[in-house]
Amino acid sequence: MAVAMKKQNVTELDVTPHWHAQAKEIQQYGSVIEDMPHYLDAKVRTKMCEMLNQLLADSIAIRDMYKKHHWQVSGPTFYQLHLLFDKHFEEQVELVDTIAERIQLLGGVTIAMGGDVAELTKVPRPPRGKEEVPVQISRLLEAHKIIMQQCKKIADAADDAGDDGTNDLAISDILRPNELQSWFIGQHLVEMPLVFPK
After folding, report:
1. CA-to-CA distance for 170 and 184, rounded, in angstroms?
2. What keywords is this UniProt entry annotated with (predicted)?
3. Looking at the domain assignment, is residue 82 inside a domain?
4. Contact in structure between 92 and 188 (CB atoms under 8 Å)
5. Per-residue pLDDT tens for 129-186?
6. Within 10 Å of residue 169's Cβ, how many Cβ atoms?
7. For the chain, what is the domain count?
8. Do 92 and 67 touch, CB atoms closer than 8 A?
9. Where are the alpha helices (DSSP H) in 73-163?
């Protein structure tokens, strides 16, 4: 049995992609959402987001430095450091995400693009070329020190402001993993002969 189909007036949709879309920003960097259900006032959240964005920029810088060194490491400890640098890179990926999510939770806007990170970070930029292992490790240790010092500063400021979440993040989520990574790579600078004389 044939079913009669009623022809409907359907407006055809334009499925052509619209390239180069432009619009105003919906929230400026450095601002926070004023009216949001959060126990901290906007002034405190703005200050915490500013400090966390600095930490985020430096964490992105060390994350990328770990990947650079993972690719460029050489020498007798190549295999161990190649694996360790990549492991630390993956851990830093998670730390970066944790910091960024805290900024968003506070109603702020995260720094994200490489050029912006390069302008903001306090971590000295390594050269593009390949460096010896002790130099790679020294750079990473200095970057960890910068991040750990910032964690302490953020934790103290958050404690004073009553921001328990940011305080906990700075110490438990960011400081402690950076301490551990710093310890792991620092042990590679201890002078030990690769071959013991008989």
Report:
1. 20
2. DNA-binding
3. yes
4. no
5. 999 999 999 999 999 999 999 999 999 999 999 999 999 999 999 999 999 999 999 9
6. 25
7. 1
8. no
9. 78-105, 114-120, 133-161
